[in-house]
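Sequence only, no structure available. Ideas?
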Amino acid sequence: MKKILIFGVSGNMGGYLAEYFLQNCSDEYEIIGVDLVEHPTVKKMIKTITMNINDEEEYSKLPTEDVYAVIDMIGPMPARMVGYKPIVYVETNVLGSYKIFDYAVRVKADRILYAKSFIDIVKRGEKQLVLHVDDEPYFDYDNYHSVYCVTQNATKELLRCVHEFYKIKTFTFRLPHIYLWNTNDQYSVKGVPHKMMHRILIDQATAGETIEVWGDPTRQKDMVYVKDLCQMFFKACFVDRETGFYNVGTGIGTPLLKQIEGMRDVFGGEKKSELVFCPEKPNAPQYIMDIKEAVDELGYEPKYSYLEMLEDMKKERELGRF
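Reply:
I predicted one. Tokens follow.
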């Protein structure tokens, strides 16, 4: 049986990815999750292996035969880091990922999939709404995200080295904010935990409380759902190509006002939240991901509209699986 390994399976997106592959792979494939700790829902779905990716001896826990694909979704994020420990980015994003790549080469895997953030181009959205795959990375060197951004781009280039030298198939994905339902509603700003903004809005809508619309309500954002990301990864796992670099997204912008109205309508009860406009408050980020390469090369087609995404998130909230 051919094996597909998902490194980082216990993270926010890992369970959704494991489930999507289980539902769509044929019986000739086994899905195996790998992470530092087990997720209670994921371990009921698939075989999971706990290991430290930086410990070379622990790679003996992994299969050595019939490995078809290795998916690298590991990596600490500024949004999940309490305090500031940049060495973790170097140890995990660079050294850890390269050890995963090296493992894939050793066991003669057919391909490697690597997920990275769009943090290297997101600021371009202030001047160009649509972000393209070939946009030059924009580096800041003086903030909490700097080392994270540099290490992820270094790893992208290392994966290219692996592809060129060993001729293994490689696919890299640039991820914006991926929307999903998760019991963890926190993220960190400069190392300090806060509640995620969209979860604040959903809670306010659920309670029928007044919701403030900050800044320019017409600014658009690409609202991509985790299950569409899963589709893109799945297609890359089986496409007949040697390599590729893709933006994850829908290619559609949803204005801030429509985002908030959607949350109010989907999550609200009989008492609908009143919207109060606050143009003096800071603007939300704006960007639309150009997904042309994913559409043309992978046959990717986003399935979830913004409202369909919210409806499915509501179902996942009720299920409480992840």
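The longest strand covers residues 29-35.
Hope that gets you unstuck.
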